[in-house]
Amino acid sequence: MKAIILAAGKGERLQPFTYTKPKPLIPIVERPLLDYTLEALSKAGVEEAIIVGSYMLDELMKYLKSQRKVRWKIVVQKEPLGTGDALKYIEPYVNENFILIYGDILASYGMLKDMMSKLLRKRCDGLMLGVEVENPWDYGVLKIVDNNVKFIVEKPKIGSEPSNIVNGGVYILPREILSYVDSLKPSPRGEIELTDAINLMIRDGFKIGVHKVNSDEWFELSKPWDILLITKRILSGLKGKILGDVERGATVRGPVFIGKDARVLSGAYIEGPSYIGDNCTIGPNCYIRPYTVIGRDSRIGNAVEIKASVLMSNTHVGHLSYVGDSVLGEGVNFGAGTLTANLRFDDKPVPVTIRGERLSSGLRKLGAFVGDYVKTGINVSIMPGVKIGPYSWIAPGTVVYDDIPPNSIVKPSSKGYVVVRRHEEDS
Question: Fewer beta carbons under 10 A from the terminal one: N or C of the chain?
């Protein structure tokens, strides 16, 4: 059985990180999300994966050439017009039932194995993953009768949901679904939807079963804070291992992975589960709290505290800084005394602006999302839920309350601060 992975979208909801890398390549504990899916497929006996791509194809191709888990072929979706439109491009490569996975889903081997076994036992034509959630109106919702899908409703109004079981983005589908693609019309959001094709199949008598899981077993990389949630899930199963050098006077407690050529200097205190990549320098006299990932070639200075955060590779955090419940991209450089605030005065969940709309993260503690190669001066403070675009510079002493576009210079002013585009500054 072949697998199809849909990886063409721009991932705008995951900005600032998708400005510089496609969504499936966002690192989760120093591995691209796509790597977990390919590993799960390989363990499940899938030998070939067709990846449908469009956005930042060169980066996607570079990664695929380096992996050895399954044979692969990349198919270019000329325009990312939706999951249904993507099916038009796979028809020459599919001759039988196939697995289809959205590129932003953390698909485990156990989940795929269970679905493949269930399809063999059930008398149905296909199977899809159904996830029990508390907020079904944010997803495609399944109407289920006798454990088969009756129909799928995309993002219904609150209170009108046919169930609390939503589309989990993992399917085993018959090849016949491809014959429905050409008849599909754009949805209200302007995309050709795979779920519309499934609804048409069901109308014509095909039986699509449901493999149900609860929300604790399913992870979607959709919004910036999902990076933290998925990381926590992965780290929960971490086994401690020390390959680098831990100086006398440093303390390592719980499951902590410390990579090759990493140095933990005297006075550092590290609590697991945490992960420190190859060639990092930690300390002296710093505090690394649980559920933290520090990517390879990074440097954490004196008297720094890192709490439940993800720091991607080659990131430097200067002395007297605090990073809490935050995600820092590759090559970020925090000047001394840079602080990320992660708690509102009113104790309410932290909102984040996603595609121009303020959305609640549902998280009481949430810090900043800092894109690749951002630099801050000394004594910069970043408020909860703020996003800073890649290649931006934040001047010393600035308090950042609002999202910052990519390639910006942020300077203090009489009104707080002013944002200047980098190319304007250079001219």
Answer: C
Cα 244 from Cα 264, distance rounded (Å): 8
The answer to whether 25 touches 9, Cβ cutoff 8 Å, is no
Q: What order of strands is seen across the sheet that includes strand 281-282?
A: 245-246, 263-264, 281-282, 299-300, 316-317, 333-334, 375-376, 393-394, 408-413, 416-421
CA of residue 252 relative to chain centroid, distance:
28
CA torsion sign for 124, 130, 136, 140 is negative
- Identify the domain boundary among 168, 195, 222: 222
* Cα 181 to Cα 86: distance, rounded to the nearest angstrom: 9
Do 181 and 87 contact (CB within 8 A), yes or no?
yes
Torsions phi, psi for 24 (to 5 deg): -65, -10
Q: Which of 222, 249, 264 is the last residue of a domain?
A: 222
Bond before 16 cis per omega within 30 degrees: yes
CA distances to 152, 153, 188, 204 from 143, rounded to whole Å, are 6, 8, 20, 16
- Does residue 207 share a domain with residue 235? no
- Residue 209, domain CATH: 3.90.550.10
Rounded Cα gap, residues 311 and 323, in angstroms: 9
Own/partner pairs, 293-297, CB within 8 angstroms, 24+ separation = 293/29, 293/30, 293/231, 293/235, 295/27, 295/30, 295/330, 296/30, 296/259
Which residue reads 């791509």 in tokens? 53
Q: How far apart are CA 388 and CA 398, in angstroms?
A: 13
Q: Which domain holds residue 211?
A: 2-222
Residue carrying structure tokens 């990381």? 231
Report angle CA 371, 314, 330 to the nearest 5 degrees. 20
pLDDT in tens, the chain (427 residues): 899 999 999 999 999 999 999 999 999 999 999 999 999 999 998 989 999 999 999 999 999 999 888 999 999 998 888 999 999 999 999 988 999 999 999 888 888 888 888 887 777 899 999 999 888 888 889 999 988 999 999 888 888 888 999 999 999 999 999 999 888 998 888 889 999 999 999 999 999 999 998 888 889 999 999 999 999 999 999 999 999 999 999 999 999 999 999 999 999 999 999 999 999 999 999 999 999 999 999 999 999 999 999 999 999 999 999 999 999 999 999 999 999 999 999 999 999 999 999 999 999 999 999 999 999 999 999 999 999 999 999 999 999 999 999 999 998 887 777 888 765 555 3
In the block, tokens 């001219």 appear at 427
